[in-house]
């Protein structure tokens, strides 16, 4: 769709002496349409050969109407002065208009001849088409005139573009929106597999089908307002097909709301279909149909709003905004405004002060800045996409894209700096000074300004502190009375041990005590005081030993030291196993003392230590949109390979890499250890948060730090990118 243009009354034009006897003749196939634009009367010129449209004012129209091949330019100027008075064009403006007419092949001289002129126009148009076809990055292919098909479809779908159709559209959108809100969690959950690589083919086919509907809707809407559609084709960007129809005839529609309607028609159709898909998916039980509907919702809803409705790209949203603001060639005018600003600041070039209002100037500056940033992002994204095509074979394509979109504009800028142009002489000294200033600021800023980053630390909810239950006496496990996760009270039996040696020692001591008591009684009867006193000491020693052995016997029944929850990996395998004195059996955790344990790698421990006592953000797995705050209370001073909680290990679905260790190593908890020593920290959370989370629940702790300068960060990113490329090649 070609944009409407208008002659710019700049100093560039044909010399006045060359105009005096020139007899220009407008092409007889041009069509002029009266139109109201920005509160002023104007005319739209339609060029059917190029499918181009131009907007001119009443003064320009009066002058053009006199270019019949008989009047000279000077005669036309004189007649305009008589008819328009002070509103007539000046000689300089006439010179610019004549230059514009000849540059765009809208007028010529009778000597050139209509036949030769049309032949030249067609040759140039054909050369332009071949130039586009030879560009491997972006090219267009015309597939013919779709008017016949569109006229056949009008009786079926033309009503959609009338007021009743708008009412139906709004109703369906509301219906689909309500169903989307109701099924929001399900939609978010199911969206992940829908965009998986194995579904890209189906997603692409759905996208292509919706784009065909999109373009057909543009054509039908244009016909409904009295326009016409001459061309249907496919634009290809990085081998991505994008259908298009030429609805540029909408520029001659008298109302800007009609033109905006034509521009919005494609989005109108896609949103309509996406809303229907949301409604169908909500009531369907067929997985294939639900997936198809979700793909339609993503491509026809999300992608359409992000790209087609984006006014920074030259898609539907741009044309809607340009007509709404009534600024023809919005992108071109904003870009020209930005270029003039840059030339004025960087090169000291002076321009004639614009008569635009402050609102219009601010609007153009804002749009131009945002569009430039967006264009830079899109260019970089397309270059990286080209580089990744065909598993790295797209590198030559990426180099070509970088040359066309980056290198050539830089060379043009360098040429302007060195040579300038006919009307502008840039100050090279001013540019050198500003460039040196920017380089200096960038250098010192990059070396001194810290780059903010967010560390994401693996974490788990655990009982901190948890009381460890250990064996106070050795023995074989006879019975296990509890299971992991069970709530116990203080004194409840956890397990019982069996130790025949303790029982034997108790029985032996009881016999020895009985004999000692008999001997003591004998010495007491015979009056042997010294022997009785010796026997008293022996008896007391044996009674002390018996008391110790009886306590050991009682300790064979292991009880909970406090109320809480039993924490252990597996207790069902303990019966029959021998436990030594001091061996850990389980942990008892208090539900009111749950906190978050974090695992900090050695490279991240320094910035984390600086955040002790500060607030951190905790996000639990499965609830990324919900977060709580916690305070980092401590970080253990020594790194360890011990797994702070089994749920963190990769073998249990956690984020930490582990390796197997020898089962006989009693210093390790379980049969796995971390591959790299790490530090353990404790993040204290509120009582309300403790009640919402469960022990063993995985989480991530987010910490904002600044440990590298901007320059270091850039170097690290470049090294990482080069390293990834080398790995992919290997």
- End-to-end separation in angstroms reads 46 Å
Q: Rough shape?
A: elongated
Radius of gyration of CA atoms, rounded to a whole number: 42 Å
Helix content: 40-55%
The number of E-state strands comes to 25
What does this structure look like?
The chain is of the alpha+beta class and 730 residues long. The chain folds into 5 domains: 126 residues, no CATH class; 192 residues, no CATH class; 120 residues, no CATH class; 143 residues, Elongation Factor Tu (Ef-tu), domain 3; 113 residues, no CATH class. The protein has 21 helices and 25 strands. A 6-stranded antiparallel beta barrel has the order 10-19-24-21-20-25. Strands 1-5-4-3 form a 4-stranded mixed β-sheet. A hairpin with a 2-residue loop joins strand 3 and strand 4. Helix 8 crosses helix 11, helix 10 packs antiparallel against helix 11 and helix 10 packs across helix 12. The longest helix has 31 residues. It is elongated. The two termini are 46 Å apart. About 2% of the residues have low confidence.
